[in-house]
Amino acid sequence: MENAVNASIAGGEGQIVIAGAGYAGLHVALRLTVRLRDNPAVELTLVDRHDYHQAITELPRVASGTRAADAVRIPLQDMLAARVRFVQTEINGFDLPGRRLLTGAGPIGWGRLVLALGSRPNDFAIPGLAQRTLSLYSASDAERVWAAVGQALTEAAAEADPERQRRLATVVVGGGGATGVELAGELAEVLPAAASRHGLAPGRPAVQLVEAGPEILAGSSPQLIDKATRILADLGVQVRTNAMIAAATGDGFRLTDGQLVEGGVFVWAGGLKAPELVAESELPTGHNGRVKVDQYLRVLDHPEIYVAGDLASVTDPDTGHVLPSLAQVALEEGETVARNLDAELKGKPLEAFTFHDKGFVVSVGTRRGVADIAGITTGGRLAHLLKDAIEWEYRQSVRHLRGWDPVAR
Ligand SMILES: Cc1cc2nc3c(=O)[nH]c(=O)nc-3n(C[C@H](O)[C@H](O)[C@H](O)COP(=O)(O)OP(=O)(O)OC[C@H]3O[C@@H](n4cnc5c(N)ncnc54)[C@H](O)[C@@H]3O)c2cc1C
Known about the structure:
Layout: H1 4-7, E1 15-19, H2 23-35, E2 43-48, E3 52-54, H3 59-63, E4 73-75, E5 84-88, E6 91-95, E7 100-103, E8 108-109, E9 112-115, E10 120-121, H4 129-132, H5 139-157, H6 162-168, E11 170-174, H7 178-197, E12 206-210, H8 222-234, E13 238-240, E14 245-249, E15 252-255, E16 260-261, E17 265-268, E18 272-273, H9 276-279, E19 291-292, E20 298-299, E21 302-307, E22 312-313, H10 327-346, E23 360-364, E24 368-373, E25 376-380, H11 381-402
Parallel strand pairs: 1-2, 1-9, 2-5, 9-21, 11-12, 11-17, 12-13, 19-22
Antiparallel strand pairs: 3-4, 6-7, 7-8, 10-18, 14-15, 15-16, 20-21, 23-24, 24-25
Helix pairs in contact: 2-10, 5-6
The protein binds flavin-adenine dinucleotide.
C-alpha cells in the first residue's frame, strides 16, 4: 500500500492508472497483470478509497442479515499481484491537461487512465428522499439497512397498538428494478423469524415494493416479470406499481396521487447516476452523468482515458439504449479495455466493444429466483442456484487470475 509521498508520481507513457477497484477496474488490473507479464517496464497503479473489493451483487443478502458484511468485502491484497501498485485514497478530481488524478494522497500522474468509479444512488431530486431513505450500494449501506430493520422491530415490539406495531415493522423499498426486487424478496423471507426473535408475531412485519412504472423489472420479458411477481406475492410482498413517489416525508412516501405509504424503514433502490466528481469534471457526459466514449471505450476527445463499468455510457446497437448498470457489462468492458491498452502498447489495432449478453438472473427471496437465459425463462429454485453459481464463479475467477503473477508472493 502506498503513502501520500510515494503516490505523487509523474505519470509517463508507461504508467497505467486504474481509478476504482470495483468489477470493471479490478478486472482491468487483473487482466493487464496477465497480458503485461512480459512487459515489466509498464507500471500498473490501482486507486480506490477502500482496501477491499466489494461483491455488490451480494448486498441484498447483507441487508437482510443472511450474509456478514465482511464476507462481501474481499481484501485487494488477496487478489492483486505484486506488480500492481495499490493506492488507498479518495479521488477528489481530475487535472485533465496535466494528466493527473487529484487525490487525498496527492496528485497521481497517468500516461493512460482507466476510469471505473461506478455509480451513486440517484434521488432524481425527489424532495426528502436523500435525507429520509437508506441506500444500498456498499457493504456499509447494507449493514445500515439490516441495523435499521432490527431497530424498527425493537420499536415495534415495545409498541402496544397493533396498527402502530405493523407500521413500524414495515419495510418500504422504493424502486422495482432488480435491486429492489432482490431486497424485498430477501427481507420478506427473513422478517417472520426476525420478528419472533424480537418478541413480535411472525406475521406482524410487512414489505412493500413501490415502483413508479407499470411493472417491476422493467425491460425484462413478460414471462420473467410474471414469475417474479408470483414469487413476491407468495412471500407476502405488497407490490405497488404506477406509484410515483412525489416526496419522502416524516410520515412516509407521499405518492403523486396523494396516497401515503407508511413504514418503519425506507430504502431507495430506484436509480443510479455517475459520481459527482465526474459531473464536476470537464469530461463529456450523457445519460445520468455517465461518460461518453467511442467504440473502443475511450473518452470522446480524450483517447488517453478509457472508461469501463457503470460510469461508461455505451449504446447497445441492437436496442439503441444505453447498456444497463450491471456487473456482467462492467466485466466485459473491463476485458475490452485491458485488451486495448495491451494492443496500444504493442502497436496493434484496437478492438471495438461488443456486449455479449449472457442472460439475466434475479434472486427473489432466499430460495427462489427468476432467470432469462438464451430466450428461456425459468423461475424457482433453479434460478436461485444459478445466481449462487454466478457469484461463486466470480469469486473463483478473481482469485484465479492472481495465479498468473510472475512475481508471486
Ligand atoms: C444491490 C445491488 C445488487 C446488484 N446485483 C447485480 C447482479 O445481480 N448482477 C449484475 O450484473 N449486476 C448487479 N448490480 C450492478 C453491479 O453491482 C454494478 O453494475 C457494478 O458494481 C458496476 O461495476 P463498476 O466497476 O462500474 O463499479 P463498482 O463495482 O461500484 O466499483 C467502483 C469502485 O470505485 C471506487 N470509487 C468510487 N468513487 C471513488 C472515489 N472518489 N475515490 C476512490 N474510490 C472511488 C469504489 O470504492 C468502488 O470500489 C447490483 C447493484 C446493486 C447496487
